[in-house]
């Protein structure tokens, strides 16, 4: 299949490489020369613009930093330039409102389009083990699914356009909340004289058990291997968690949803990132508590 791939960064580079590995004719474009060179080495054909990459494509996949860039790309270089028979997939993490607006414009021009943000970081993008949360019509989802399956281990239909983004930010808001709660509990347990391993042994089989504790423990040397065991390097950067929390707060505002815990988590991550910790894994917030 001829697939245009726009945005070959940390995530998109590995995803485009996996599409090429699966035998697709990947037509790649990025503003960055090193990203284009890496895509070429991975078996993609590179182009001088998104418009050129999209001409004749049967599918377009994008993996870009934010909603304004996604909107600009689709309005100026994809819609009206890719054949209307092409299915469009935006895998970036962007705000729900822009995702719905762009998909609306694509549909009005005769395209099938989905929002398909991912769970999983750079390692999962390289390994082809991402989880995709997909918003769009049944037809668009069914057309997008085999393409996403070449880049991931799970592809889940979340409902109408924008619902992929909604699922992603609600999930990550919950993750931020239980990570902070887990950090607070470990820090307080220690101040009360409890050994962290002992607290883990008790809480991990009691009602406080949660994913941040038993799969991603913020305390070094406790629980399975996690970024805390590597001085909070690698994993999911605080800056990216903050990006998702800001999107969550914007969506909550638009939907008139009460998110007192999400808002507190967002403000704590603002403080932690603002103190120069944006590059550390998000579990490092335990240092601030
Ligand atoms: P990145 O900054 O490494 O890559 C973005 C790429 O887009 C860059 O190579 C940049 O040159 C390119 N680009 C920007 N504007 C462009 C344009 N107009 N045309 C063509 N190319 C353009 O970012 P990333 O880490 O790969 O993240 C991409 C998306 O995936 C973001 O929305 C992010 O929130 C999401 N995400 C990232 C992670 C992660 O761990 N990095 C995890 C889950 C989701």
Query: What's the shape?
Result: elongated
Number of helices: 12
For the largest beta-sheet, the strand count, sense and barrel status come to: 6 strands, parallel
For the secondary structure, the number of strands is 9
Radius of gyration: 20 Å
Domain module tally: 2
User: How do the strands of the widest beta sheet line up side by side?
Assistant: 3-2-1-4-5-6
Which residues form runs of ≥5 with pLDDT under 50?
Answer: none
Alpha-beta content class: alpha/beta
Sequence of secondary-structure elements = EHEHEHEHEHEEHEHEHHHHH
CATH architecture of the largest domain: 3-Layer(aba) Sandwich
Superfamily at the CATH H level of the largest domain?
A: NAD(P)-binding Rossmann-like Domain
* β-strand amount: 5-15%
Give the ligands present: nicotinamide-adenine-dinucleotide
- Determine the CATH topology of the largest domain: Rossmann fold
Mean pLDDT: 97
Q: What is the CATH C level class of the largest domain, in words?
A: Alpha Beta
Q: End-to-end distance, in Å?
A: 51 Å
What order do the helices and strands come in, and which of them pair?
Layout (H helix, E strand, L loop, with lengths): L1 E5 L5 H10 L3 E5 L3 H9 L3 E2 L3 H5 L4 E4 L4 H12 L8 E4 L5 H13 L3 E4 L2 E2 L2 H6 L2 E6 L2 H12 L2 E8 L3 H29 L4 H8 L7 H4 L23 H18 L4 H18 L12
Parallel strand pairs: 1-2, 1-4, 2-3, 4-5, 5-6, 8-9
Antiparallel strand pairs: 7-8
Helix pairs in contact: 4-5, 8-11, 8-12, 11-12
């Amino acid at each position: 299949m001829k697939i245009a791939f726009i945005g070959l960064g940390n995530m998109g580079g590995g995803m485009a490489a996996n599409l090429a590995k699966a035998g697709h004719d990947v037509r790649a474009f990025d503003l960055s020369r090193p990203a284009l060179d890496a895509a070429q080495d991975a078996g993609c054909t590179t182009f001088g613009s998104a418009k050129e990459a999209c001409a004749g494509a049967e599918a377009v996949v994008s993996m870009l930093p934010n909603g304004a860039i996604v909107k600009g790309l689709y309005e100026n270089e994809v819609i009206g330039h890719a054949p209307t028979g092409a299915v469009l997939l935006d895998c970036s993490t962007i705000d729900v409102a822009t995702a719905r607006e762009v998909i609306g414009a694509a549909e009005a021009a005769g395209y099938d389009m989905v929002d398909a943000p991912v769970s999983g970081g750079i390692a999962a993008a390289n390994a082809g083990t991402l989880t995709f949360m997909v918003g769009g019509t049944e037809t668009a989802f069914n057309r997008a699914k085999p393409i996403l399956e070449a880049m991931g281990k799970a592809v889940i239909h979340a409902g109408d356009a924008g619902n992929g983004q909604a699922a992603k930010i609600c999930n990550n808001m919950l993750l931020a909340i239980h990570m902070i709660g887990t950090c607070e509990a470990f820090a307080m347990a220690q101040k009360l004289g409890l050994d962290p391993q002992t607290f883990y042994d008790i809480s991990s089989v009691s009602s406080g058990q949660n994913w941040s504790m038993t799969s991603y423990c913020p305390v070094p040397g406790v629980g399975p291997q996690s970024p805390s065991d590597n001085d909070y390097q690698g994993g999911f950067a605080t800056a990216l968690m903050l990006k998702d929390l800001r999107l969550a707060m914007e969506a909550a505002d638009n939907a008139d949803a009460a998110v007192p815990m999400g808002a507190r988590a967002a403000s704590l991550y603002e403080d932690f990132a603002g103190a120069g910790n944006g590059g550390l894994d998000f579990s490092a917030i335990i240092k601030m508590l």
